[in-house]
Specification:
Homodimer; disulfide-linked. Hexamer of two alpha (GNPTAB), two beta (GNPTAB) and two gamma (GNPTG) subunits; disulfide-linked. The alpha and/or the beta subunits of the enzyme constitute the catalytic subunits. It contains 4 helices and 10 strands, in the order ββββββββββαααα. It has 246 residues and is of the alpha+beta class.
């Protein structure tokens, strides 16, 4: 949100017990143990990723992918509350490796300061209006409504777009819609048929024969030839841990 831009590039610290916490809005959260032990902890409790949006309200800032903690990464949720000055007011660890921070600022004292709709550009507000109208007209389901809003928040930059390793929809379908309406499904099907026709045309143009897939095993397609002089080629994105998977 534009009115919170002035917090970017600044950091706010708080010392509780033997730890010093530092919160840098839209950057990260760090923790530094204030002792003279040789192995005193100093690390990252989370890196800025996205907002948590609940009921059209910015409910908190999520800082994820911090330092490793057992079998997971440390993460922090920062709640913004009204205060007379900008300050990190409280830090706790409600569950292992998950931290809760309270940040006070006069920038959120206005009753509408944490509402999402007013913070959106006009084009996205119009999209939201249309989504609300489609729900009222029963053109989309409640599940479809929630998905469309998430895509809208992603386009606004308030939510993180699913990464390549996360489940995604087949190419050709409307982004993030999940075919919640029959019209979307028909549109995606039509686009796929167009792609198939185009690919067949290219094959024909280059004199490459094509047939429908059969239930033939991959070894038969390869003429039972299996390379033995080198290890199997890794798939793109494979970290090479396939043999050590636990």
């Amino acid at each position: 949100p534009v009115h919170l831009h002035r917090l970017a590039g600044k950091c706010f610290s708080l010392v509780e017990s033997t730890y010093k916490y530092e919160f840098c809005p839209f950057h990260n959260v760090t923790q530094h143990e204030q002792t003279f032990r040789w192995n005193a902890y100093s690390g990252i409790l989370g890196i800025w990723q996205e907002w948590e949006i609940t009921n059209n309200t910015f409910a908190g800032m999520w800082m994820r992918d911090g330092d490793s903690c057992r079998s997971r990464s440390r993460q922090s949720k920062v709640e913004l509350t009204c205060g007379k000055s900008n300050r990190l007011a409280h830090v706790s660890e409600p569950s292992t490796c998950v931290y809760s921070l309270t940040f006070e600022t006069p920038l959120v004292c206005h009753p509408h300061s944490l509402l999402v709709y007013p913070a959106l550009p006009e084009a996205l507000q119009q999209r939201w209006d249309q989504v609300e109208q489609d729900l009222a007209d029963e053109l989309i389901t409640r599940q479809g409504y929630e998905k469309l809003l998430r895509v809208l928040f992603e386009d606004a930059g308030y939510l993180k777009t699913p990464g390549e390793n996360e489940p995604t929809q087949l190419e050709g379908g409307p982004k993030g819609l999940g075919f919640e309406t029959l019209e979307n499904c028909k549109k995606a099907h039509k686009e796929l048929l167009t792609d198939i026709k185009r690919l067949k045309s290219l094959l024909t143009q280059h004199g490459i024969p094509y047939t429908k897939p059969t239930e033939t095993s991959s070894s038969e397609h390869l003429g039972h030839k299996t390379p033995t002089d080198r290890p199997p080629e890794q798939l793109r994105g494979d970290p090479g841990l396939r043999g050590n998977f636990l």
